[in-house]
Each structure stands twice: as structure tokens, then as C-alpha cells.
Amino acid sequence: MNKKIVVVGSTNVDKVLNVEKYALPGETLAIDTYQQSHGGGKGANQAIAAARSNAETTFITKLGNDDDAKLMMDGFKADHMNVDHVITTDEHETGKAYITVDKTGQNSIYVYGGANMAMTAEDVAAHADAIKNADRVIAQLEIPIPAIIEAFKIAKANQVQTILNPAPAKELPDELLELTDVITPNETEAATLTGIEVEDEVSMLDNAMAFFKKGIQMVIITVGSRGSFFATPLEHAFVPAFKVKAVDTTAAGDTFIGALASQLELDNSNIKEAMLYANHASSLTVQIAGAQNSIPTQEQIKSVIKADTISEKEIEREKQAAAEYVAAKIPDNIVLGLGSGTTSAYFVKAMHDRIEKEGLHIECVATSVGTQALAESLGMDMLDVNTIDEVDIVVDGADAVDEHLNGIKGGGAALLFEKLVANMSKKSIWIVDSTKPMKSLSGQILPVEVVPFGGMGVFRYLKDNGYEPNFRFKDNGDILETESGNYLINIKIPKDADLAKLAKALKEQTGVVEHGLFLNICDEMVVGTDPIKVVKRDN
User: How many whole angstroms separate alpha carbon 87 and alpha carbon 61?
Assistant: First the structure.
């Protein structure tokens, strides 16, 4: 059953600036990026994280009567949060946070409280019914302490679990700690509250014991890229984080808390499983620049969990099995499109073996430079894509496929060529491993190929229309160029998006060469499970 969560906390509009490094005192540094605005605030971040993990989420926050408030409210509604208890004031502006992020992904944050710091205990009391009907209440320290105390008093009087995220770090009155069931500091915040430096698991347990003396029933200490520690009076354990390349750590902790709260049973019986889920959620957040735009959906998190539970060796086995299954069924005397990527490479090799063994007459067209080179090295009969107007069958991989066999492709550098060959093919077959199929493409990353001289114009269009764009870069930090010499911009597909309208809107934007939505193109998907699974599109 979905958890009923009330978040009492802050809303900020984040003003983000990316820098190569932080300036030393008195130093002036030039930058080559402009300031971006995103939704933020620890309360809003945690509420969105809970909502995107399918918790029934109600948000009690205070906003100014301004454009920033409208921006935030639109976002809350898009995530299906209950906003009936959002408070608006004419006396203060909506809160703001000014964030700088360096090239390692570390951030520094300066917060203007605004309407957040005007929230009163009376404001909270006026919305007591929302708290009384919840399973748990979450609060942070970007609103006044009396408002949090009032929320927790109402919760405790109605047997509602209370979770306190003591951030930003400050000393707290015993009255608030005594009303707290679960506390979730990071290592710095824990040391501030207990006076015990967090250095290892032993010192984490010492911190937990200090919190237990205040009446707190569970302590969860997060330690960044290392993972998280939990302790109750009966058990404790350290749960390692998942190793990923961090782009921006903003909202990682908030994502952890919201995701955790959405999964944790009220008796805390599944604490390890809930923390693993939350760690996966945070690992996704740090791979995308920004705050609320980087918070993953439950489907994205479960997809990563599924992929993580399947070994890399098993995924490769599934790719190869799907490729070989399809290769065995390709008829003779056709023009065959060869897709790009590692899965398609298995198919190319399997087709080469059949052609050699059976003496088949098959002419091939490659969708990428890499595939072309592989096929030529094997001596396969290759055609120039510019000399043909029709392909009998194209076999390719996919980055994600929904239940209607609509998919996302082009995550590498061959998007335009992949779309060209797909559109000229009579039949399209996708070969995938079991991590690729999913119910919906909502929340998935979609590549958009743009001409270099129009890239920033397209970027601004995508940003203004809520698509949360980010240019794609190579591992060395250089911007990625496609095989056509263009740039790729990643966007996130909005929740419940009309894919046909999205595809049309993107193609109509000047500067967009192609996008990675492949709609009504796949005729058959083959999943390399044991046994092989074949899914055909309903026309």
C-alpha cells in the first residue's frame, strides 16, 4: 500500500552556476556558463522524491505571491502532489537558493529563506487535518523550529511517525528531538548535534546511542558517496552506496530521504531494503545536474535495481542470445539494416557466421561508423546508405522500450543514421536485454540531436518548455559530437507525456536535426531471456 506522507518544509527556486573551480578569497575567475533556475528547497525536494516514488504526498509549505511561486506550484501539480495545504503570503518572496557546482560535482549553497522563514506554528496548526491523516511526517530545518515542533506535536498525538532531517546543521531544542521518531543527519549534522565526530562505524553507533538517549527510535546517518548507516536499539548496519560518476550532488540527500520514506514500513521491518532503494535513488540523482529535475521516478529506480541485480555477464548473455535468435531467422536475398551499439555487434557477428556457413546472399547497410567498420572487417557485403531507398529488415538495439513498443534510441553518436535506416525499412526488429523493457517512457532520458550553431537556441527552448535539458559530454569533458557533426542534448520525458505530440514539437523546433523517440517503428522486440521472449506490436 502506498504510504501517506506529509512534508512540512521549505520551497526555494535554485539559481545554479557551474564553475571550473571555486575562487579563492580575493580571486576573480571567468566562467563560460550562464545561471540556470530550477525548483529546489529541501522540503520541496523531499516531497517530490516521495511523490515520484508513488507515495501519496501532501506538502505544507509557504510561498510568496510571485512568479517563482507559480513556477513551483505548476511543478508540484505535475508530480501529482496534494497542494491544498500550500500557504501563500503577500509579505515575503518565495525562498531562493544560490548554488555553485564545480567540475567534480561538489556544491556550495547560499539560502535566502523568504517566505519559508515566515512559516509559523499557527500556519501549521491550521492544516492539522493533513498531518492527522498521514502515515508519517517529514520536516527539515529550512523553516522555523516552532513550526516543526507544532507539526510533530500534532503527529505524535495522532500516532503518526515523525522523521526529522536536521539540515542545515544547527543545535536543536530537546523538545523537538523528543518528538522525533527517526532522525536522518549526514555526518556533519550528526557531529553538530552530538559532539561526536563521524569517522567510522563505531563512531556512527556512538552517535546513534546519543540520539537514543533523547528518545529517538531510529538513526540514519548518510555519508555521501560511501553510503548510509542505520541503527535502532536492536540492530545496526552500514549500507554501501552505488559507485557512479557524479555530475551534481545537489538534492542527493533529499532524494534519499523522500525515497526512503516512500518505501519504509511503519514498523521499520524493511529498513535495509528501503535504504538500498534510497541509495539507488540518490545514485541516479547525482548523475544529472540540478535539483528537482534530477530526482528519479520509482520506475527509473526499479529499473536500476533490476539492472544491478542482474550481473554484467548475464546482461551480455541476454544480448547475445537475442541477437543470435534473430540472426537465425533472417531470410536470404534481402537488404539488411545493421544497428549500432554492443547488442547489434553480437547480431553482426552472428549474421556473418550464417552468411559464411550457408552461403547466403545478403546485402547490408550500417547505421553507424562502428558497425560499418565491424561488418567490413568481417568481409560482409556492404551498401552505401546514400544509394538505396528501401531496406527489407533492420535489426537494432534500444535504450528503453515501453509496453506499446515505442522506444528511445540514439544514445550514442549515430542517432540521425539510425532514424534514417529505420524509416526506410519494411520491418524493424529490436534486440534487447531484460533491463530495457518498461511500462512507460516517462522520466526516461531522451537524446535530441541539434546543429552546433543552433545548440544554445534549442537549449533555451527546451528549458523554457520544462524539458530539463543538458548537453551530452564525453568522459574527458569535451562536448559529444555525433557522427553527423552535431551535438546531443539530453532531456527528460515529462510524466504522462503525449509522445506523439512531443516528437512533433521537437521536430518543429529550428535547429533540431532529429530526436531519439522511435514511435510506431518497432514491429517486433526480442528479449534475450531464458526462454527468449518475443513481443510483436499491435497495429
Answer: 6
